[in-house]
Amino acid sequence: MSIKTNNQPRELLYLSDFSEKDQAIEFNYGFFRYRGNIYHLQDFVRYSGDYWDGCLGLNYFAAVLIKLTSDCDHVVVGFQST
Q: Which is higher by pLDDT, 17 or 69?
């Protein structure tokens, strides 16, 4: 299993920060972009790893991992694959 990350915090965004096309989502805060996709914190399940706080399985072999910063205004994102 390998995890790729640049360890750079990404700012969590409001719905109004996106284009009208992307705003057809029901939540207002907690969004971020990663690899061309928009994710919301609610999409992730709690992850009981050493460093990561949440996990979103993409398929059997890959997942997106998140780590909230101490102020909870940014998220560090990683990609896990086997």
A: 69
